[in-house]
TrEMBL record:
One of its GO terms (cellular component) is bacterial-type flagellum basal body. GO terms for biological process: bacterial-type flagellum-dependent swarming motility; chemotaxis. The keyword Cell inner membrane applies. The chain crosses the membrane at residues 27-48. It is found in: Cell inner membrane; Cell membrane. InterPro entries: FliL. This is Flagellar protein FliL. Controls the rotational direction of flagella during chemotaxis. It is a single-pass membrane protein. Pfam families: FliL.
Amino acid sequence: MATSSPAATAAASVATDPPASRRTSKLLIGLVAVLGLAVAGAAAYVFVLPRFTEHAAAETAKAPVPEKPIFLLLEPLTVNLQSEGRSRFLQIGMALKVRDEQAKAQIVEFMPELRSRLLVLLSNRPPESLVTSEDKARLATEIHSALNAPLAEGLPELGIASVSFNSFVVQ
């Protein structure tokens, strides 16, 4: 019995080979699945991720962080208005929105000249020209132009961004 028949040897090899071939086929299927997932992940990284980062970058670029505004409050002014008959007055308080600290320092330094410009601009106006909101908006534009004008020949504008009223009383 030391010799085995060829049929017995073939039966023994068939009995031992199927489990080995099943293992290699499972291993091959697993490797193909992992390779497929790696290719799909790389494709997603190359094609899909740039769309999300461009969208996020565009949103960041669209919504910049606003700078903190710099306001300079002016002392209230009282001026005579041009009126027939009785005396009429305008009491006005305002704030100037300036572009930067340097402009604020320059405005504070030249405040007497700026107050003089305001008094000349506001005095002797008819009271009827200060009634509607359009009149007040027009006045704010005129004040902005007058105050933002250079203080001397060859100097730049003062850097006033806008003028807003804190109080506005016509008596």
